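User: Quick sanity check before I run a bigger batch. Here is a single chain. Can you write out its predicted 3D structure?
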Amino acid sequence: MSSNLVTSEVLEPYAQALMSVAQSNDLVDRFGEDVSFILSLLDESSELEDFLANPLVNADAKKNVLAQLTSETIHPFVLNFLRVLVDRRRILFLRGVCKQYQSLLRQLRQTVLADVTSAVELNDEQKEAVRQKVVAMTGAQQVELDTRIDPELIGGVIIKVGSQVVDASLRGQLRRIGIRLNSAA
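Assistant: Done. Predicted structure follows.
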């Protein structure tokens, strides 16, 4: 199944359904927090994701594990949603559905997601400077940063917003200098 087909046929309808429940109950932000919590669980434990995707594990076992891990933290509506995903054998798409919900939430809040890769951890002042740069690039009202560290950059940052890329890293600058020197020779 192609990535776009999975997105349009599976992820979007479930994320839209969750958003619909959230909006009708004025829980959009709460569900956003719950989805972030679920994604952090999946990030912390690849075994959990493997367990949920395993077709040999019965549905009740999956529901019990999800309830044990999340019932104290997430809203009961979201827990019921997870149960529906298990019952419909769509729980293996949990990460994608959660990311799609976050995307819908960003659209609703007129927020853009900026992937920021830096050589070292950015401090609050640097993050704010990146936010301002992204606002200038996109005209968005709000900016959400997804930061990663890549020591191979040597210094600086790479900012990706959709298809736009700003490479302000030392590695990128050295590469551009090398290209200019090669074309001048």
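The beta strands are 111-118, 142-149, 156-161, 164-169.

User: Great, the batch can go ahead then.
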